[in-house]
Design goal:
Number of helices: 6
Largest sheet: 11 strands, mixed
EC number: 2.4.2.28
Pathway: Amino-acid biosynthesis; L-methionine biosynthesis via salvage pathway; S-methyl-5-thio-alpha-D-ribose 1-phosphate from S-methyl-5'-thioadenosine (phosphorylase route): step 1/1
GO biological process, one term: L-methionine salvage from methylthioadenosine
Mean pLDDT: 98
Radius of gyration: 18 Å
Subunit structure: Homohexamer. Dimer of a homotrimer.
InterPro entries: MTAP (IPR010044), Nucleoside_phosphorylase_d (IPR000845), Nucleoside_phosphorylase_sf (IPR035994)
CATH superfamily: Nucleoside phosphorylase domain
Bound molecules: the ligand CSC[C@H]1O[C@H](OP(=O)(O)O)[C@H](O)[C@@H]1O, adenine
Structural class: alpha/beta
Shape: globular
CATH class: Alpha Beta
Length: 290
């Protein structure tokens, strides 16, 4: 058994969480640059917690410029074991209505202008992201949502777009009708891929704010309407997060799905050919295997 440390990455509308004991905002140094903000640490129900506002307090980072690698590295460096993303999303399904939450289990990555890996020249690694979210952590998120009285859907495909503009009508229809996506957002990729490289369990909670632009009765997506829904969603998101420590417990077994062993056979570069500078930067992310 090892100690659980739950990290929450709060998306648009969630810039802090309440109720932590010994709460403290810590600045974590990372060789991958500055994280989005300091990280709020503390404990809840005897379980260690860390909270990072993805866009920074005051919403300063755009989806394309969120420092995804520094964020995941900083959480790993703090000793986090489990990462829960809580994000604002548009919906491609009538039944996934604004105010509902979706526990995402698949992604389509359409982002094009972001650093997507900790690895590269001097240390090449290939991890599997066939199942990019952790079912154990997703179970806890689903239960927490139900206990908090949230209308929650289990399973859904999240289309990650580059943004910052919303989709055209043609894109919205294609993602929904041809590609089978259920929700759309701008931030869960490459975050989920990087969490897997860092051997962290990752779950994604999509908080629906709108019907994007495909819905004949709802017109096009509009940020003012999103913000109205976002406020209610943020309170529900905090209620969900508050229930997670009791569900996950202060100690954990190895992940039954292997998220915490993703790098076991992933690194292909022979030890004598590895770049010492890159290896030094990988000390937290890949420390278990290098
Ligand atoms: C507020 S509308 C668009 C914005 O909100 C989402 O951010 P996050 O995933 O961090 O909640 C979406 O991905 C866009 O970045
Ligand atoms: N319709 C939408 N498209 C992309 N990101 C979003 N975040 C919230 N709603 C969204």
């Amino acid at each position: 058994m090892t100690k659980t440390k739950i990290a929450v990455i709060g998306g648009s509308g969630i810039y802090d969480i309440n109720g932590l004991e010994n709460a403290e905002w810590l600045t974590v140094e990372s060789p991958w640059g500055d994280a989005s903000d300091a990280i709020l640490t503390g404990s809840l129900d005897g379980v260690e917690m860390a909270f990072l506002p993805r866009h920074g307090r005051g919403h300063v980072h755009a989806p394309s410029t969120v420092p995804y690698r520094a964020n995941i590295d900083a959480l790993k460096r703090l000793g986090c074991t489990d990462v829960i993303s809580v994000s604002a999303c548009g919906s491609f399904r009538d039944e996934m209505a604004p105010g509902d939450f979706v526990i995402v289990d698949q992604f389509i990555d359409r982002t094009i202008a972001r650093e997507k890996s900790f690895f590269g020249t001097g240390c090449v690694a290939h991890v599997s992201v066939a199942h990019p979210t952790c079912p154990r952590l997703s179970d806890a998120c689903e239960t927490a949502a139900r206990d908090a009285g949230i209308n929650v859907h289990r399973g859904g495909t999240y289309l990650a777009m580059e943004g910052p503009q919303f989709s055209t009508l043609a894109e919205s229809q294609m993602y929904r009708n041809s590609w089978g996506a259920d929700v759309i957002g701008m931030t869960n990729m490459p975050e989920a891929k990087l969490a897997r490289e860092a051997e962290l369990c990752y779950a994604s909670v999509a908080m629906i704010t709108d019907y994007d632009s495909w819905h004949p009765e709802h017109g096009e997506v509009d940020v003012t309407k999103i913000i109205e829904t976002l406020m209610g969603n943020a309170d529900k998101g905090r209620a969900l997060v508050a229930r997670l420590p009791a569900l996950l417990g202060a100690e954990r077994d190895p992940c039954p799905h292997g998220c915490d062993r993703a790098l076991e056979y992933a690194i292909l570069t022979q030890p004598e050919m590895r770049d010492p500078t890159l290896m030094a930067k990988l000390d937290a992310v890949a420390g278990r295997v290098i």
